[in-house]
Amino acid sequence: xxxxxxxxxxxxxxxxxxxxxxxxxxxxxxxxxxQRLKDDGVAESVFNTPQRFxxxxxxxxxxxxxxxxxxxxxxxxxxxxxxGFPWSEQLVKRxxxxxxxxxLTAKLAVEHGIAINLTGGYHHAFADFGSGFxxxxxxxxxxxxxxxxxxxxRVLIFDCDVHQGDGTAALCEQRDDIxxxxxxxxxxxxxxxxxxxxxxxxxxxxENEEYxxxxxxxxxLALNSYEIxxxxxxxxVDIHQHDDLGLLNVSTxxxxxxxxxxxxxxxxxxxxxxxxxxxxxxxxxxALTEVHYQLxxxxxxxx
Length: 303
Ligand SMILES: [Zn+2]
Prior knowledge:
This protein has 303 residues and is α/β, with parallel strands linked by helices. 42% of the residues lie in helices and 12% in strands. The chain has one domain: Arginase, Chain A, CATH 3.40.800.20. The protein contains 10 helices and 8 strands. β4, α7 and β5 form a beta-alpha-beta unit. It is globular, with a radius of gyration of 17 Å. It starts with 7 loop residues before the first strand and ends with a helix. The structure holds zinc ion.
């Protein structure tokens, strides 16, 4: 992919987090995806380095007490268990840099039509608590950032991670300028679902064909029902048949076709799309990298 010129966002800190041995979170995947892109001929100039998101802005847009406690390490043991990571200063730095990455991706997408963050999709983060490896909801904050543009009056958050975007749904519930759509496995975490504008609770073991039909239906319905000016796409790959946490049966090719469908549809409608890689859980980092890599191939091929 030597002529790849879609703006990408990456910071080495994405993978710089010490976790307990056998922790299920594949923290090395971000560096691995970056390396894979470089090995495949993607130029260094394509990569943009994010700034850490401001704690004060997070406090203004979310629950200030929660943000303070997260930053200072004073959340209780129960709250940290719900997040799923041990607290550290590095965790906080990484979290705010990852969020900054999605905001930068949103800005680049508006300028260039498409941009991808090599992390992001913290959709289980609510205003006042974190959950499921998510602490600060980057999707919500990036949607708000996009809305600062005069010609963007409504943003679609299109979430194809296998888990419901419950935090995003709750944060956007009272907003008619942010439309949330979640396609997820119904019998999977989070067991208590929130109300997105459109929810598609998929059956376990769903395969490519039916899955892709659902994605197409969901995206068409959202774009035909609401006047959308920009899209944030959570391209979670925990829908993959070999994923440790997903329960669907979608192949690597199915993921490529899904990502193509989203990019092609947005291109047809001249909608800027900011994509994040979302969830994906396999112990074999090379195998997982290959699955996440489909997003970049699809973006490249859709241009
Ligand atoms: Zn997920």
